[in-house]
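Forum > Structural Biology > Help requests

Title: Can anyone predict the 3D structure of alcohol dehydrogenase?

Hi all, first post here. I have the sequence for alcohol dehydrogenase but no way to get a structure on my laptop. I'd be grateful if someone could post the structure tokens.
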Amino acid sequence: MAAWVVERPGPAGSGPLRKVRRDRPQPGPGELLIDVRACGVCRTDLHLAEGDLQPHRPRCTPGHEVVGRVAEAGAGAESQGFAVGDRVGVAWLAGTCGQCRYCRRGDENLCPHSRYTGWDLDGGYADYTVADARFAYRLPDDDRPDEELAPLLCAGIIGYRALRRAELPPGGRLGIYGFGASAHLTAQLAIAQGATVHVLTRAEEAQRLALDLGAASARGAYDAPPEPLDAAILFAPVGDLVPVALAALDRGGTLSVAGIHLSDIPVLRYEDHLFQERTLRSVTANTRDDGRAYLAEAARLRPRVQVQRYPMSRADQALADLAADRVNGVAVLMTD
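Reply #1:
Sure, ran it for you. Structure tokens for alcohol dehydrogenase below:
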């Protein structure tokens, strides 16, 4: 089968991905072999390819927004309710120990033994991938195309958790910094829940998309929003925006930082950025409960997913376009 691997981490334009031929993997006990139909291109894939994230294994295949069909089920996988031919989704969280204090208290996203698709295990930039059936998601076999479901599996789920971590009050004012794959899905969820959303992002095309999706305003990333914010989410991996977003919060507001990687944060002034009970919070991965809850919300709301399609054979170009801000919405690889 064809697969892409991170050969040598470096700038996306330098070709850190390499296309290779591999044997088709075999599912072990409790695992699913998945015939990949679509795989979203996430900024985390870019961080891995460019070396911002330390590789967990050599020549790993990226991709953790995978939609496909079950091609084969390993022994015991049927106990999770999957059968050959089922439409299935594979997300970032690939496994946890289930025994540590974090797993036992429901915070499996903090498990120190957690594993991740496309980082610890080969992901979806390939014709086939293997996943633990306990961490796969059943997807509806309806009219929604595979490429529109794929971004829900990370961009959507992480945005959902980031919104929860931001503790936006009902009918509150939410600021969104950066407006890519996750942000454009999260904005729709927040608006559907009754929030007023203000988008702060540098790209004019992204600003236009934000307004088209129902944002109350769209301005430059370093501009002040038109009113104080009850909560904010930082999706752009730019540490310089942390004090900007904190300063835009009203009293008691919370800034939730959604990325797995962030450039250095400048010095914060207590009086300007944190006083009056402003809160700064990080977001770490997600739990399976987050995934199930968000996918149920998405099935009800059917958010508009702004997709830029690429054939799987052009995964390297998709990653380079993401690095250069040439993707408006979310890039999705389609199997050739």
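The mean pLDDT is 96. The first helix runs from residue 43 to 50.
Shout if anything looks off.
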